[in-house]
Amino acid sequence: MNIVQNIWTRGPLARAFLMALLLVSVIPIISLSLLFVRQSTDALTYQMQANLQSLVQAKASEINGRLTEVLHTTEIAADQVEMVLQHEIDPTEVEARLSRYQPDERNILGLDIYYNQQGGASEMGEGLSNVYWDNRLPPSSAVGRQIVQTEVLDPIFASIKGVNPDTKWIYFTSPEGMMRLYPWASNDHYPTGWNPREIIFYSVAEPANNPKLAPRWTPPYVDYAGAGWMTTLSIPVIDRVSGEFQGVMSHDITIDSLKDIALDIHVLDGSGYGFLIDPQGRVVAHPEFASAVDAQGSQAEVNLLEKGSPDFQALVQRMVDGESGLGYFEDESLSEQMLVYAPITTTGWSLGIVVPRTEVVAPAKAMQTRAFFIAAGVALLTTLLAVLLTHILHQPLVRLLAGVRLVTEGHEVKPLELDSFNEVNRLADAFNKMAAKVGERERNLKAKVAELKIEIDIQRRQLEVDSIIETDYFKELEMKAEGLRNRLRLIE
Amino acid sequence: MTKVISIHSFRGGTGKSNITANIAAKLAQQGHRVGVFDCDIQSPGIHVIFGLDTNTIVNTINDYLWGTCQIQQAAYQVFTDAASGGSVHLVPSSIKANDIARILRESYDANAIHNAFRELIAALQLDYLLIDTHPGLNEETLLSIAISDVLLIILRPDQQDFQGTSVTVSVAQRLRVPDIKLIVNKIPPDYDVADVQRKVEEIYGCPIAALLPLSLEVAQNASSQLFALKAPGHPFSEGIQQLVDQL
Ligand SMILES: Nc1ncnc2c1ncn2[C@@H]1O[C@H](COP(=O)(O)OP(=O)(O)O)[C@@H](O)[C@H]1O
Ligand SMILES: [Mg+2]
Q1: What CATH number does the domain located at B3-245 have?
Q2: Contacting residues for A490 by C-beta, under 8 A, at least 6 apart
């Protein structure tokens, strides 16, 4: 710093030179790197956001693919049911085949007794279904026909379950309350008075509640039979010719493996996480609320539309609306988080991924600090270089200037020392020659006036002294001088 | 008791300001409180040697003479020595062309300057008061000389200075200045110093306090720093030290 200050105070030329050097080096370097850092940090952050958005899209479509599969197979089953119900069977054959279906002690008509007589359902191998029909209901010839007609569905149901690892139950329920369920389960499981038409898997799809006759997904729930988290897809079966409602085809799947897709999302050192919500904003899968609901038969209860800060809720609303996108919110610990989300169109669910904002901008931050240090280093180097150059250029000029001053005053000077032969030193060289010449002349002159040097013109001195001491001012001063001196001292 | 020292030369450019500044700093290093007046109102310059930034100067001796400030308000502490506790307080003279013209045009009471000295001594409890005078012998300079305990006359070894200095010495003797000392400055390298000393003492009959060489380094320094502190081993600095020892 000292040397900079030194150069700075030396003169306008050195100042201008130093300024010019700094201007063409340091300032462009700093501004260029600022520009570069800015653009590349923006790009890095953008890249990061884009990556996360692709990730959420990919995961959402993975989940969606699995659900679409379920939808397609269930649609096939519904078509098959419709065809089977078209098929006329001779009443005598109906009568004969119905003999296998017997009421149990609670008067539920089914195959339990028949299977037991055959040595137990489990002994009879895979591929069997059971019928549930509450015999206390008014008897109907239609029910008998439905039971016999739907018998042929067993291999179809078996093949659906075969291709779909998440499938738990596949079952058809007629408007009369007859249910055929695959795979076989004993009717003892159902509580007394249980009516399938009152249960959500039926009511959600029946025309009264589903005028568009669309496939319907139930909210996720915990299975009665302990199969974990489930959802049910129900599709109304409509007679293609008459347009008449013929029952509901239902398909229960466990969603644990779908949940795992969301819960297994770990981004950026594991600080990010994924979650799934249903079309009402209720949690399907979320690492924090995973064990919130475990009672069998209960439904998802944690609703994210009612959790967290308003900006978080606004984002959840967008998810519920089926949008895909990105947004920021503050969590309970007031740290800023980024949420990317994408819809799962088949069920109307939505998948979200949350990542701390610091992680999103971390690469940009790191790059910023690196760039800062590099720029600072380069700036320091160029400054040093500028100072050095100025010093090298200016130093001989200073010495030259001092020499010129002395010669101007008529003194003799020793030749200036030259350490290298550049332009400035050539000037110094010329100066040395000149100074030597001038010195020589001066010496010659001095030799001539040597006699005068020690002489004082007494007369002239007297005249000058008189002109001073004869003034009134001097006379007065002479008188007071002693007093004035003493006055200064008296102050002490 | 305050010691008042005037530094004078017959011509300008003799080295008055540089010698005054260096003496002041050396005295301060010995733990003294030193006041310095720049009475070279027509060509001021000692503030530069102390590195006093002209932008920070608010009041000058000019303002005091016009009655617009107190003398303490025009005094700037320009040097301190932490080890000894000594300090230098400079009363600068205005470098503004207007101010210089005005002080030359409107004559002021020469005695006012005497009051300035008195007041500063009292206000700052000074041990030394140094006066960097104007070359020649105008009324203020005569007054400064008259009230001094010590008069230091600087001359260069040339004919014009020899003649002029003889007038100053005569006048100072008339005013009965207790202690008159000569300083020969800018002695060219090819001079025989002993010869210079002998001749000068012979002519004036006054003691020589210091013989200082003409030096490229001092010239290069160009009044930008206190040379005696910056290069203590230099012959010029040693001469200054020798001078201070006699004060
Ligand atoms: N012994 C010396 N050798 C070389 N240059 C000197 C010496 N003494 C003073 N100077 C230079 O002479 C110039 C005038 O000095 P200055 O102290 O301003 O004189 P004054 O106050 O008498 O006008 C300055 O540039 C100074 O650096
Ligand atoms: Mg001066």
Answers
A1: 3.40.50.300
A2: none
